[in-house]
Please model this.
Amino acid sequence: MLARLLPVTSLALTLGLILSNPVAAAGDGGDSNDSGAQNCKAGEVWSSSQNKCVKSSSGLVPDGDLYDQGRQLALAGEFDRAIEILNAIQDKDKPGVLNYLGYAHRKAGMIYEGIAYYHQALAIDPDYVLAREYLGEGYVAAGNVDLARQQLQEIGTRCGTNCEEYIELAEVIASAQ
Model:
């Protein structure tokens, strides 16, 4: 009898733990950067060491945490907040930081500012195909499909025609024609 109850008890305990943790129940994996960045007010970022929101200009949050939160906010469509947080990074001369500054600016409607950030990222790392994909998307948004095709060629040279960045940029270019 006990052997039959054990799996049910274990399942009930697991479900109870999951449902009592709203972050895990929401399906975001329980990453504190995810939930913290989204719940902070404008001008604040999540400090995992302090387990609370702090001012984004305070210098208390490491660049890596700021990058993670800025990237997450950009991908979630919160472009202005992403720009604010990414701008709080002390060492902005990293291709990933520049790429997501470009992404957030482009998606916020500042296409040419975004393109400039992608160029900065690629000056540091010409093989950064995600920045090339986003640059190509920026060119399409600006109406310059020929320059987007050049980026598509560069991506194809670096990672082939089956990599995700190539496929996604090819789809954007095809939809623009």
Q: What stands out?
A: The mean pLDDT is 81. The radius of gyration is 21 Å.
